[in-house]
Amino acid sequence: MKYLSILSIAIFLFASCTEEQKVQSTAANLTPAKQEVTLDPQVFNQKLDQGISISEARKLKAGDEVLISGKIIGAHSVFVENRASFIIGDHNILTSCDLHEGDNCQAPWDVCCEESKDIAANTLSIQLVDDSGMILKTGLKGKNGLKELSLVTIKGSVSPQSSEAAMIINATAIQLD
User: If DSSP codes are grouped into helix, strand and coil, which group holds residue 67?
Assistant: First the structure.
């Protein structure tokens, strides 16, 4: 009888552990795993020639290939958090706040002193997309040295979502100049 009681307790404990493990396993399966987006190293490892200006690029249409040069400037926030997107502007036409003597703007890469029509005509968005055309869910700030006020050359094509008011380039290569 004593052995039967010990055996019953051991079976109960074993069964309890098994049920607990099942609950933990099920909970782990329901928790969405944070997927780390790995950028193709080729995006940052290509040698690019000098690109055309942003105002020239704005004459292109969706699907056109482009090689464009600019500076990461244009707004208070030029990088989109947790998305592979940023803004570039034509630094030969737009003057960022860091170049205005005595300017106390909190974002030196902002071009808030420029006319809005000039900002619209001389800035555009750069993004990295997946095979289905969806923007990658990872931030680009700091990737391969990308930061505000960096001079860059971008190889890519005009996005189908691009419009006259908001031009978007789907990048395939990004080079720090």
Answer: strand
The torsion of the CA quartet 135, 141, 142, 148, rounded to 10 degrees, works out to: 140
Question: In this predicted model, what pLDDT tens digit does every residue of 146-157 receive, in sequence order?
Answer: 999 999 999 999
> What is the rounded CA–CA span in Å between residue 168 and residue 166?
6
Structure tokens at 134: 């969806």
Kindly report, residue by residue over 64-118, the tens digit of the pLDDT. 999 999 999 999 999 999 999 999 999 999 999 999 999 889 999 999 999 999 9
Phi/psi at 141 (5° precision): -60, 125
Q: How many H helices and E strands in the chain?
A: 3, 5
Distance CA 128, CA 138 (A): 9
Long-range contacts for 17-25 (Cβ within 8 Å, ≥24 apart)? Answer: none
Q: What's the DSSP call for residue 9?
A: H
